[in-house]
Amino acid sequence: MRFMPVAGERQRYAERKALLRGRAVEQHTHKSGLRSKLSAMRRSLIVTIIVFMLVAGGATAQSTAGVQQQPVGSRDGRPITLYTLTNSHGVEIRAMNYGGIIVAIRVPDRKGQLADIALGHETMEGYIPNPPYLGAIVGRYANRIANGKFTLDGKTYSLPQNDGTNTLHGGVKRSFDKVTWDGEPLKGTTGVAFSYLSKDGEEGFPGNLTVKVTYTLTESNELVIDYEATTDKATPINVSQHSYFNLASEGNGDVLNHEVEINADRFTPVDKNLIPTGELRPVKGTPLDFSTPTRVGARIDDTYDQLTLAHGYDHNFIINRKGDGLTFAARVYEPTSGRVLEVSTTQPAIQFYTGNFLDGSVTGKQGHVYKRRYGFCLETQHYPDSPNHPDFPTTILKPGETFRSKTVFKFSAK
Ligand code: GLA
User: Fold this and answer.
1) pTM, rounded to two decimals
2) Is 334 a catalytic residue?
3) Which end of the chain is more exposed for a tag (fewer CB within 10 A), N or C?
4) What does the pLDDT read at residue 5?
5) Which one-letter DSSP state was computed for residue 17?
């Protein structure tokens, strides 16, 4: 089932209808006399209808502010619902309880023109399968665990390998992007909460892990994502959001012209399997230095070993931070539209990925073919493969503790 049309489309539809009605009036009056009088009336009627529809269209955007729900199919016998969060500026975030997937993000450009900047599909079925993890919540362990193995409290755990010998984004069958979550609109705010119980042993991980992810849309055009988890056995957790953005609008070419700034002095270099070597390397003097805004395409094909290994940017940047509060992590600006995305987070790091593995095999919304580097991701996270790097900040959640993290995606234009 197709996702219902967005507010902008609803408005365009209303305007089209108004015009058609205008034409009908024209045909009807054509044969009768008193032509000039009627044509004046006709003109004023058309103007009235259009003005009315525009006002009504505006009112629609107002009156739909809040959370709307649409049934969009079922998975494993459970209903899948699309939640549309709309604020009074007409900004829209759409997400469904299958994989917690964000299916659309409609935000204004510098002229106030709304466009969908999230790569994705127009139906729930379009996401089955979803090899690039478009828009999904990723976990239990976002990013890679080397050789699908880790040892915790003397016991070695084996996970399904789905990226060469690595475990990528939590496994194969029941990773967070592929399961049905419980969805519930938030009360008193424009948001939705998705909850999921990942059972002890699921995808090889220990402990019953209860996870809650909420998406809230604010009146300042921010998408606030809150993550929370508890467990009954010690277990690693690293949960993130895998939206692909193209600030010019989804499907609108590659992202090489976007300008990126990342608040990181260091990154974790990787080996040929994209597993951190353990080194924390300064970005200074490398093509990974985004301490001042730099075009994605300016250095992406340099012959620097890290870029060659990852086929572009696909790296974990360590956020410069004072304390563990919400800290500015990255900013992206797209010059033609003027759109800006700013990311802040409580997480220690952020994966900047330039869609190097998009290869044109996925066709998304409106028949758009998602080719190499047609989108970028900014995945706030812990360092990849932390369970095998005791010197990295720990990702182990213990019974009695609550894992909490927050990431804010703020949309604006200049
Ligand atoms: C992450 C990884 C990339 C790639 C994508 C999914 O961003 O770091 O290497 O696997 O997910 O295609």
Assistant:
1) 0.88
2) no
3) C
4) 79
5) H
